[in-house]
Amino acid sequence: MINKILFRGLVAVLVFVAGNTFAQSVNYYFAAANGNDNNTGTNAAKPFKTFKKLSYLQVNGGDSILLKSGVIFTDSLFFSGKGLPGKPIVIGKYGGNAKPHLKGNASSLQMVHIYNAENIVIRDLEISNKGKNIRPHLSGLLVELKRYGIARNITIENLFVHDVYGSLIKGEGKNDKDAGGGQAIMIRNVSEGETDSILSCFDGLLVQNCYIKNSQRNGIMMWGNWVRKFWFPNKNVVIRKNIIDGVPGDGIVPVGCESPLVENNVMKNSPLTLPPSEACDGIWPWSCDNAIIQYNIVSGHKSQVDGYPLDQIIIVPIHCFNTILRIITMADFYCYVIQAAGPLSTV
Question: 216: which strand partners?
């Protein structure tokens, strides 16, 4: 009798382990045009219609959230979830080569919002967010951590982000109703104007092969733990092979990072639309140690205040240390200056 009980218990354990080890990944399909939220959503022939369904789904590592190729979605996408190492959650497309278009009218501050997530891939999407009037703090894509701790392995790739009609005026210390610059892609791990009770950072952040077009104010921005007494830096940050086209403000700015790598990016065709009081620069790290900025091109950058196509502009001497610049290419700029406080190398 005892042996039978032990045998049944062993079988139950083996079944449980096998079921969890070999659990199949699930695809969740969305199609705004012909979907239905009463569908199962796990079959491409019976997709969901709106992203509201995401709040009712248990999305696990290895699962995918797939938007139908070439379809316009007008509702914003919010997702918070955790994949597994080697089995990320993928947000992407299905059914063709054309990117699905998440087309916002600025009624939502961000058209795609990834919140407190890790082991996740966001790829192959078209995102825009433009209303009749500019809106402060507007984004196309917002990847955000808040009182989370360490978020690992986030990839953003092959996005087309355009026509994000945000404010041209920075938010820091400005007494203006429109203060709060817009960003095509914002990656944030610290709250604005407050100290988080639990510090957060990214460990393993890759942004690559994205095309940003005609967005304001900025291109790819980070907002990290830049205050040194709260130093909790982002690590393993790589921003490469992106094109920033027609963006008037800052192009690419890693903030609060240890050893970020920014390489093979292009910024071009920056319109002269910022107010005369607004400073901006091409590609520059802020409060980053051991940054490598290499093989980037900045062309046609027209800031009226700074106007440094690619620089390391340090506000106080402790903000950046040991920055390395390699093979900088600049063209059609108004002025060019490298400013550095702390060790700087050029190769």
Answer: 165
